[in-house]
């Protein structure tokens, strides 16, 4: 099944699931599991890891993340891209936890197919995020950039900006709260 066919099939099922249809949700999870299992096996193999149980572990983490993050799904975006992005984040997290560096993890060709067409809403959202980051104090901005965007540890980021790990955690937490408040105010404005 092509990616477009999968998207055409999954999108209405997932939207029904979001509306409370339990049978649709089960069908969505069953269908996306097949696709993500293959994706995760392929990516783990490309990273030098071919243990089938490892792919299943990452798949289970991904399915849990999909469940917990379903409220974040933007109905104007492809559901397959959303699911694959979460799977990739879980894969990277798994490789980091297991001591495997992800710098050499190749970008999969499918990722380019999954990305939806560029539009004004995405550009506007990016600009809003940049403005929210710019409103933060410099050290907080640096911490969030290092930890949340670049994936460094809190300890490494704290050392780089001359803070204790505890102070860095507090600064990151407060910075993210400030960004959320900034972005929620932007959402209230008429556009």
Please tell me about this protein's structure.
Residues 35-100 form the RNA polymerase sigma-70 region domain. This protein has 9 helices and no strands. The chain is mostly helical. Helix 2 (22-46) packs across helix 3 (52-69), helix 2 (22-46) packs across helix 4 (79-97) and helix 3 crosses helix 4. The relative contact order is 0.08.
Notable characteristics:
Sigma-70 family RNA polymerase sigma factor, sigma factor, mainly alpha, 0% strand
Average pLDDT, rounded to a whole number, is: 80
What is the number of E strands?
Answer: 0
Mind telling me the C-alpha Rg?
Answer: 19 Å
Please work out how many helical segments DSSP would assign. Answer: 9
**Class of secondary structure makeup:** mainly alpha
Proportion of helical residues: over 70%
Quick one: overall form?
A: globular
Euclidean distance between termini CA atoms = 40 Å
> What string gives the helices and strands in order?
HHHHHHHHH
How many strands, what sense, and barrel or not for the largest sheet? Answer: none
The share of residues in extended strands comes to under 5%
- Low-pLDDT segments: 106-121
Pfam family, one: Sigma70_r2
Keywords: DNA-binding, Sigma factor, Transcription, Transcription regulation
Protein name: Sigma-70 family RNA polymerase sigma factor
Family: Belongs to the sigma-70 factor family. ECF subfamily.
